[in-house]
Design brief:
The protein is mainly α. The chain contains 11 helices and no strands. The chain has one domain. Helix 2 (34-43) runs parallel beside helix 6 (145-160) and helix 5 crosses helix 8 (173-183). It starts with 15 loop residues before the first helix and ends with a helix. This is GST C-terminal domain-containing protein.
């Protein structure tokens, strides 16, 4: 094997305490039900504010409609595939149970609380860093796998329109600063889909006409806004 200059995402050379912290945070992030948060935000728009691409209104309607039809599609498959009927019907029942839970506002608030508890722990960890560690990331001076998982979570929440709910106004100032720093990283800019790529993906989706019209309108607003912003600089 040959040596690589790329920093390890799991810092094996920084001691067991750092490794344990990285692992604990990573596990906590992976336990968060991203799918439930996503669909729940579609069903309870009162919790969201200023969603971003790709989770704009036409896409939210499309994904929500697809989620609602999953159970029906599974039951149709069960009727046409007798050998897998029992398994498919069980999956359909599970889908109905999950959807019913997501439609319940109080149940969705429990999911949001689960996220909030994890982010509170992140805020506490970030707040403990002294001034001489201002450039440190979540667990150490390196950007680790825990930071990767946290970035994915924060970006999903922000795009769903839940940033204000979790770290808006004076809530979690250290987390807000952390997310801002992450967005300035070259690796983030190269990895996260650009506005134009998101729009391209939307155009490629097989959507009903009324959704297509909505996307076209948004495309002109977004692209036009970016163009005007650049022209005014």
């Amino acid at each position: 094997m040959y040596e690589c200059d790329t920093p390890r995402l799991i810092p094996l050379d920084l001691g067991p305490e750092v490794r344990q912290k990285v692992t604990q945070f990573r596990n906590a992030f992976e336990l968060i039900p991203a799918g439930a948060i996503t669909m729940g935000s579609f069903l309870h728009p009162e919790f969201i504010q200023s969603p971003r691409l790709p989770f704009i209104q036409p896409v939210r309607r499309l994904l929500l409609a697809a989620e609602k039809s999953n159970s029906r599609n599974l039951r149709e498959l069960a009727e046409n595939n007798p050998e897998a009927r029992e398994i498919l019907l069980r999956k359909a029942e599970n889908q109905d149970t999950k959807h019913a839970a997501l439609e319940n506002k109080e149940e969705f608030k429990k999911v949001l609380h689960q996220v909030d508890v994890v982010l509170d722990n992140v805020e506490k960890e970030l707040s403990l860093q002294s001034e001489d560690k201002a450039n440190h990331w979540l667990c150490c001076e390196r950007f680790t796998v825990a930071d990767v998982s946290l970035t994915i979570l924060l970006d999903r929440l922000a795009r769903l329109g839940l940033a204000t709910y979790f770290w808006g106004a004076d809530k979690k100032p250290y987390l807000k600063q952390y997310y801002h720093r992450v967005q300035l990283r070259d690796s983030y800019k190269k990895t996260v889909p650009s506005t134009l790529l998101n729009l391209k993906m939307l155009f490629m989706m097989k959507t009903p006409l009324y959704i297509g019209i909505g996307v076209v309108t948004i495309a002109f607003v977004v692209v036009g806004g970016v163009f005007l912003f650049k022209k005014s600089k």
